Amino acid sequence: MSALTIPITQPPRPWVLPDRGKVAMASLIIAESAIFTIFVVAYLFYVGKSLAGPTPSQVLETPVFYTICLLSSSLTVHLAGTFLKRGRQGAFLSLWLLTFVLGSLFLFGTAQEWHRLIYEKGLTISTNLFGTTYYSLVGLHAFHVTAGLVMLLVVLVFGLAGRVQRDQSGRVEVLSMYWHFVDAVWVVVFTVVYVLGR
Amino acid sequence: MSTNAIAIENLRSAGRPWTETLHEWVTTVDHKRLGILYIAYALFFLVVAGVEAMIIRIQLMHAHNDFVSPQVFNRMFTMHGTTMIFFVAMPVLFGFANYLVPLMIGARDMAFPRLNAFSFWLTALGGLLLYFSFVGGNGLYGAGNAPDVGWWAYAPLGAKAFSPGHSSDFWTVALLVSGFGSVGTAINIIATVLCARCPGMHLGRMPLLVWLNLVMSGMVLIVVTPLTAAQLMLLVDRYLGGHFFDTQAGGSATLWMHFFWIFGHPEVYVLILPSFAFVSEIVPVFSRKPIFGYPVMVGATVFIGFVSMSVWAHHMFTIGMNSYANSFFTITSMCVGIPTGIKIFNWLGTMWGGRIQFKTAMLFCIGFLFQFLIAGLTGIMLASSPFDWQLSLSYFVVAHFHYVIVGGILFALFAAFYYWYPKFTGRMLSERLGKLHFWLFTIGFHVTFDVMHIPGILGMPRRIYTYEPRPGWEILNLIVTLGAVIQAVAILIFVWNLLSSYWKGAVAGNDPWDAWTLEWSVSSPPPAYNFATVPVVASRRPLWDQKHPEDPDSRYE
């Protein structure tokens, strides 16, 4: 009944469709970008509108080292994927581990900065508009880094158990798309918070 | 062949305990079952939100009525709006997309069946959360139960100080959760359409329903997420003492309006595009002609997708924007009339010279065309900012958007029910009851919403629980309420038709309408695997090619 016999008038060409994992991740990234856009707009809209201190120029320090950590992790995750595609397990695992360490360092940097702001500078999410927008935007990004780290860790554990082979390189690539996105968002957040917002 | 398979399945299910059937439905990852779950869930909430609408209308039947208290009235219009948009319109359209998109592109299932089930249950639990507020919204404050801040919850009304208790929290979390569900389904539809098409199904050969749902899903990605972000900010304000929308600390109430309407306006297009999709499939079949201007229809859809992102502030003309913003949003809003006008002319062009069959589904499509045009005309009126200053927040606006949502979206949905019910269940809906449903509902609709424009022009504001007996107000409101009663009766006939035809309807067979898209090539209801062999298509109307091998479409495309 469902076997269709439809006349084909043109010679059948090879039927190639895009990879569903990549399409879905690209869609998710578009959706996430819209969320971040709204938070960035709110941050920029409220720059300099706090009724009370502290202000960004008084308390913020540019996290250069941790930014370098996060941005270079984009390179390592890409190289790890390339090595996996070529079937070089050892190189893949060590670069994957390096990515995880760099990401964790970045998260540690955020934690350190928040600790300093809260306990030394007295800036919390309810202090003023700057606090509200700053912790929301940076926190939303940190949440995405954390989610990425969890997924990196899962792949790392499977990799150490020898379960991540060349066959899985497509899936690893999808994850690395997400990680690149997290890095790209940081470029925007960094520009907005530490460059424009001061 | 397939009828045997169905018979065997029925035999097997007859002897099974009901818990097993229930377990199967709860754990299903089949796109057809999830589609039906979405639709059933939405129909349930349609009745719930309809009852809320009736309560509103009874209260406004005459001046100084005290059928419900002002507090209850506020809850009713808030819950009516929120439920109808998020838990009726969205799920029912997603349900049809879920069911039809894989079948129409010759796929076995959605690209991510488990994500599909996850998204459905998120949406379902979101609806339960919203209605749990009737029980749990009181909190420790004894401060009212269900949300009562309007479906857009303007700041600072949503702040803790003005909305104590947990009612607004239930509203926020319900929309957050169902928003995640919507984004999940949108991602799934995009991945399915782009990655699961059967051989030969180029983008230019996809049925228009698939195209429109693809564009709709793309819009959901960037439209629903701003609401998610705004809800997160509201939660920060309410629970962590943030100041996003706190005017006392320099925050801005206007910002919430912008964020809400960046979601809120394109959302209307998210709802109307699948309705266009139904009409684009049904009108050609009952006009016995292929769709007129397929590429232009696709282009107009994409154009609507783009332009709808830049019109949101026409909801905010009265807040006092500068003249540049007013002009910009007036012009962009009027631009929407171009692609929608193209679509209306193309549907008319499809019907022109066709042998039109006036089945119930076609009647609803014709009603849709007529009413959507009028809704568009009042839309153009309201898009003009000086006109809007006069009539914003009056019943004229309420009449306008109900004309779009009921006269447009709901009519297209009814058409879809009459057209695809045979495919979903294997039984035809009764045409006799269908025609009765159509005429009663159309009369009720016009009595309610045509008349509702007039109190708006006379100056009756929306969202008031009662009014003074000014000249004309009472009789007009009484007529509006009477129309609502007629609509309610029509809906009951529809529900009765759905239920009784399931057991007593005529057996449909594979292709009761002599249609042309792939879903009609399989049995009704389709087997779990959809297609025994993957179909290969060579034109936009694969079944036409199959039925007319001497004159296939593929020769001309």
Summarize, please.
Chain A is mostly helical. Chain A is built from 6 helices and no strands. Chain A has one domain: Cytochrome c oxidase, subunit III, four-helix bundle (Four Helix Bundle (Hemerythrin (Met), subunit A)), CATH 1.20.120.80.
Please tell me how large the radius of gyration of chain A is: 22 Å
Fraction in helix of chain B: 55-70%
| Strand element count of chain B | 0
Please trace the helix and strand order of chain A, writing H or E for each element: HHHHHH
The gyration radius over C-alpha positions of chain B equals: 24 Å
Number of domains of chain A: 1
Structural class of chain A: mainly alpha
CATH class of chain B: Mainly Alpha
CATH fold node name of chain A: Four Helix Bundle (Hemerythrin (Met), subunit A)
Q: Do you know the CATH architecture of chain A? A: Up-down Bundle
CATH architectural type of chain B: Up-down Bundle
CATH superfamily of chain B: Cytochrome c oxidase-like, subunit I domain
Largest sheet of chain B: none
Assign an overall shape of chain B.
globular
Distance between the termini of chain A: 69 Å
Please tell me about this protein's structure:
The complex is a heterodimer of chains A (198) and B (557). Chain A is an all-alpha fold. Chain A has one domain (20-196): Four Helix Bundle (Hemerythrin (Met), subunit A) (Up-down Bundle). Chain A contains six helices and no strands. Chain A has helices at 20-45, 56-59, 64-85, 89-119, 129-160, 169-196. In chain A, α1 packs parallel to α6. The model of chain A has no long low-confidence stretch (mean pLDDT 93). With 557 residues, chain B is mainly alpha-helical. Chain B has one domain: Up-down Bundle (Cytochrome C Oxidase, Chain A). In chain B, 68% of the residues lie in helices and 0% in strands. Chain B has 17 helices and no strands. In chain B, α3 runs antiparallel to α16, α7 (208-240) packs antiparallel against α8 and α8 runs antiparallel to α12 (360-383). Chain B is globular and about 70 Å long. Classes of the chains: A mainly alpha (198), B mainly alpha (557). At the A-B interface, α1 and α5 of A face α6, α7, α8 and α17 of B.
